[in-house]
Amino acid sequence: MTQEASASATRKKVSVLIPCYNEHSVLPLLFARMNEFIDTMPEYDWEIMMVNDGSSDDSMSQIIHMHIRDKRWQFVDLSRNFGKEIAMMAGLDYISGDCVVIMDADLQDPPELIPEMLGYWHEGYDDVYATRKSRGKESWLRKRLSLSYYSLLQRTTRIPVLQNAGDFRLLDRKCIDALRCMREVQRYTKGLFTWIGFRKKEIKFDRADRAAGQTHWNFWKLLALAIEGITSYTTIPLRISTVVGFITSIGAFIATIYFLIKTWILGDPVQGFPTLVILILFLSGVILLSLGIMGEYIGRIFNETKARPPYFVQSTSAQRNPEPPSAQASAQAHTYTQSR
Ligand code: UDP
Ligand code: MG
Question: Which protein residues have their CB within 5 A of the ion that is ligand 2?
């Protein structure tokens, strides 16, 4: 092999996956910053995959203009807004790189961290994830809630969920293939990253504030994602409702004996209206809560059994990868190599 041919054989392609929803004001800044950045690393082939998640502003036309000017910029335009989790799934179906860096469009995740990620990737790590030293401009309540949520999730699941790690990370092709095997529609990707395993490496960074525009997450959306996270990860809540049901049954049994003795032996006249009301209210509460918890899981079963395609594509500049490889095929595809 000539030197040039061997260099091109080892030349790696890096995909950058950016989900984008109504990012009109931030896209010009993103284009400029990314172009400046990738020009500093000509030793790689670059592909920047913009997934337009049904934006209603002019994000899509900006992306098309960028694609026309520079073919390193590719796009997948989804048929409507499916949410960031599905947008990332769609992106993974279309990228062609040896590895992918997932980042937000709003420049909260600095592209300047990519060289460090690539360094660890070359050392053999498959999932280099960035954790936030600081969380940028977020309300005190959101920070607190988020921290308590992670510690709850951590305690109820067997697989550790990484606190303060977002979706900003570099994934090797192995991880991409593994994630593509998992086609569930109600996704909590942050959990999936951990679930798939592979060699992980943490790096730390200061999360910047949004470069422009506004966050798309409000309290309710975050709450929905939080419930998603727990129900897609663990069945502990079901067990908790069984345990609570069991304990209340024992309590009810003891109370029954107590009241029977009181009425029969001590001949207590009819009394105890407040006790009755309290018991009815408490038990109905427990029953409704357990029903709700069960409902969450049945809802998930309902959504997954419909087996609908997770998304539809309006148009794209890229080729969709072949159907997701089965876990076995993907294992065969990755034979051992000492270094990348
Ligand atoms: N996003 C998306 N679809 C959505 C909502 C958000 O693709 O329905 C994208 C958004 O364009 C951004 C990223 O997800 O690139 C993170 O969104 P945002 O900055 O609003 O979230 P935050 O940083 O506040 O958690
Ligand atoms: Mg953001």
Answer: 104, 106, 108
